[in-house]
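hiii, so i know i said id send this last week but things got crazy w the move. better late than never?? heres the sequnce for the chain we talked about at the cafe, plus the structure i predicted for it. fair warning i was half asleep when i ran it
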Amino acid sequence: MPVRLASYLLRGMAIASLTALAACAPAPIYKPSTNTIAVPPNAVAQSPERFANADVIWGGRIVQVNNFHDHSEIEILGYPLDSSQRPKVDNGGGWGRFVAVVPGYVESFDYPSGSLITLTGRITGSRNGNVGEAGYVFPTVSVAQSHVWTAAEMESGKSNVSFGIGVGVVH
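okay and structure toks below
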């Protein structure tokens, strides 16, 4: 009987530990609307008219910021988002590029190239452009909200716990 009790206790502790680790992940920062679609930028680029006026929650790595007299445009290399809506850049290639259109002036210092961003907005169409010398179709998104992630935010909620057998060294 004591062996069975120990088995139940171990199972209970394992379940409690996994639940506690899952609870550490930050909640999503944006709530989807009823009009929000889960389609990547490269699919929208193939038939932008099909997705016109749909809401999206997209994220990725900032390529560059361009300021104009009445708006700013942020070119972004899109990536899938995790459950907290952080871009998952370690999954290989991106989802394609898109242009986030923001009313007014955007300080490029606040949106530096290489930073990770998540935004909500509405697909307004597409435009032809270039990536290097190659032609490219960029979906355009009118931005409602955006968040540039800090390194600490990207790491929060990620477990530092690992299980295994053997010797390990932590740097």
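btw The longest helix spans residues 2-23. thought thatd interest u
miss u guys!!
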